[in-house]
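hey
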């Protein structure tokens, strides 16, 4: 019963506060604990639909910050003016286009020919889940996370931060260890807004080491 009440609490709160989904509170709680987002940051949301993480991130980074999202599905919920989303596949991603939408140059490049922009996103975040449930849910979620790690050199600036969702299982310790090699600090975190029966965990990396 308590778990059901918790679900209702966050569901109703999200509806009242205008978030696209209750998952917004997961990001807010991650940030409260790990401080991966700050005002003025430029953020990439991989698997951004329905848009709740972009809404929450927009509030944190403020009007001088910028959020770019990509998902297989179109984001239909109204978004703040500093949010842009496109339809696309993370397995066929155009890093240059995502950077351009945010007014950024590639990581390790400080400015373009006109002296504008800076290299790479400040934060890469993902609340993606595989389009399946059952015994292979863990393996597929690990695969998505491994893809995110592959993309970081083209998208995340050195010193930047990251968080990504994975379902707990046998490969979780290895994935956490692999991620820890890329960041100065790396921990797993389970937000209070996560349903009690869920195997969701969030890997949080702070201080990306770059190439």
């Amino acid at each position: 019963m308590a778990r059901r009440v918790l679900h209702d609490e966050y569901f109703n709160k999200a509806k009242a506060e205008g978030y696209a989904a209750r998952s917004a509170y997961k990001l807010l709680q991650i940030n409260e604990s790990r401080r991966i987002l700050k005002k003025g940051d430029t953020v990439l949301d991989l698997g951004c639909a329905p848009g709740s993480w972009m809404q929450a991130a927009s509030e944190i980074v403020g009007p001088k910050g910028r959020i770019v999202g990509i998902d297989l599905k179109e984001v239909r919920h109204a978004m703040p003016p500093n949010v842009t989303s496109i339809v696309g596949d993370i397995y066929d991603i155009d890093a240059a286009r995502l950077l351009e939408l945010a007014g950024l140059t590639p990581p390790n490049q400080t400015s373009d020919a006109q002296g504008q922009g800076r290299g790479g996103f400040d934060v890469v975040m993902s609340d993606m889940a595989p389009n399946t449930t059952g015994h292979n849910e863990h393996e597929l979620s690990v695969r998505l996370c491994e893809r995110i790690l592959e993309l970081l050199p083209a998208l995340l600036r050195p010193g930047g931060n990251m968080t990504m969702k994975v379902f707990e299982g046998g490969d979780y310790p290895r994935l956490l260890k692999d991620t820890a090699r890329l960041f100065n600090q790396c921990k797993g975190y389970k937000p209070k807004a996560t349903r009690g029966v869920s195997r969701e965990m969030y890997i949080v990396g702070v201080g990306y080491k770059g190439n």
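The radius of gyration is 16 Å. The CA atoms of residues 7 and 105 lie 41 Å apart.
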